From TrEMBL:
InterPro entries: Acrflvin-R. PANTHER family: CATION EFFLUX SYSTEM PROTEIN CUSA, PTHR32063. Keywords: Membrane, Transmembrane, Transmembrane helix. This is Putative silver efflux pump. The chain crosses the membrane at residues 20-40, 46-70, 105-124, 136-158. One of its GO terms (molecular function) is xenobiotic transmembrane transporter activity. GO terms for cellular component: plasma membrane. It comes from the Bacteria. The keyword Transmembrane applies.
Amino acid sequence: TLLIIFVLLYLTFGRVSEALLVMLSLPFALVGGLWLIHLLDYNLSIAVAVGFIALAGVAVEFGVIMLVYLDNALADARRAGTLASEQDLKAAIEEGAVLRIRPKAMTVATIFAGLLPIMLQGGVGSEVMRPIAAPMVGGMVTAPLLSLFVLPAIYLLWRRNTGQLMSTDSVPHVIADLKI
């Protein structure tokens, strides 16, 4: 499953570095799922594995959407010509990350609203459904935190180290590429 996710991310973004950046969201989400599985004293089973597969999909979606917003904010700053310093890079990344706070909170609230009744309800089939829901609920505690705080910080370090600033040295190259 992880290899398929990585290949799809690589085909989408066209860069190994961006695919790996999104894949970083998986371990943090899995930690939350494992934590809740341990807390509820569930054994690893097929049902738990299905829950982890669903959690992996949501965690990658969080990472992909955050990366798209960060890339768009960086491209907007570059087009506006406001990417001359490291402060400008940080401001552009913060702008992209802030745009995701409300949608991410709504997504997490919706997932909790759908899965908590499954985890808390008894009855026929609950012994199968609870272990499926548990990794998702646990992962929804940690995955959004990574996506909102850690991913933008790593993105900032990556972009800073790859020379993504529009410094005065790069301006002649940009002007030369315009072919006025």
